Amino acid sequence: MKLIDYGVREDEMQYIKDWSKENDIEVKIVTDLLTAETIEAAKGYDGVVAYQQLPYDPIIFDKMNEYGIHVISLRNVGTDNLPMDALIKNNIRLTNVPSYSPEAIAEYSVTGLMALLRNMKSMIRKVDNHDFRWAPDIGRELNSLTVGVAGTGRIGRAAIKIYQGFGANVIAYDKFHNPDIEKQGLYVDSLDELLKNSDVVTLHLPSLGKGNTVINEETISEMKNGAIVVNTGRGDLIKTKDLYDAVESGKLDGAVLDVYENEVGIFNSDLSNGELNDELLKAMVSNPKFIITPHIAFYTTRAVKNMATISLDSMVEELETGTSKNEIKLAK
Ligand code: COI
After folding, report:
1. pLDDT in tens, 231-278
2. Which entry of 234, 261, 317, 318 is annotated as an active-site residue?
3. Which domains are delineated in the chain?
4. Can 234 be counted among the known catalytic residues?
5. Where are the alpha helices (DSSP H) in 52-128?
6. Would 151 disulfide with which of 96, 143, 205, 258, CB 3.0-4.6 Å?
7. One of 70, 157, 204, 263 is an active-site residue; which one?
8. For the whole model, what pTM was predicted?
9. ipTM of the assembly?
10. Which family does the UniProt entry place this protein in (predicted)?
């Protein structure tokens, strides 16, 4: 068996090399992203592994079919950048890594929130300039707040545990009820009810697609005055301009955004030479009421190792048995 792994970053490489040695399976490491051009390199391999944020070109899957390759394994969880019709048409099976470290993302939600509640951005900027005054950066305490967790999948549930550990009053919403969360009596009946009753709303939902947002002008008007939004899920869950305006007007107290609706091509790029042409992002970056980070909630050694190795394990499972516990069933 011979595998090819695309878009490999420096921090993933050793995990892939170690896996290859331990499993005695050849894995060709490619740093280029998977495109209509780079797929050529997969000729002669049995399976393609990849991760990227840019959309996957449908031609890739026509070519995979032509080369007799019928499995693609993603090193991440999100599949929103794949042309599913092209996979179905070419009989290509798909796996992802549904759980590489829910705790990494859940911990980051609280990390960002704590930084915002204690005005860390403003305080660090002041201290960097040798201004050691306290005021006006008086903080708020998490233990006195109601945290609304939207989405109670693995990440949402890990977040609930952590927020409860801090003594926050936690409420939750999900279309699908988890028995443990149900038993604790945390569920409210609707997303609206969650938004109305939360001092902090933390989003752990997948993308809702087609311009469907959870946080927008209308829903913000229902939220508590002074509430905070934390998003470590998907950028398109929020109409960011509406959120920005609400913070600027004082309706909301701030936001922690590790994902952003227009992040592709910006996050994980070095634009320090002045190439950032996104006025809204620029405004948020300079505003101490916004903690903005470039989609790094997942970015821990444990998570990266799991992404690199679980994707390869799933590929082997697919090639040996024709399916995998991480296969995503594509709607025909
Ligand atoms: C995903 O796994 O889909 C993520 O959002 C994390 C990604 C940046 C690797």
Report:
1. 999 999 999 999 999 999 999 999 999 999 999 999 999 999 989 999
2. 234
3. 2-100+301-328 (3.40.50.720), 102-292 (3.40.50.720)
4. yes
5. 58-66, 84-89, 102-117, 120-128
6. 205
7. 263
8. 0.94
9. 0.95
10. Belongs to the D-isomer specific 2-hydroxyacid dehydrogenase family.
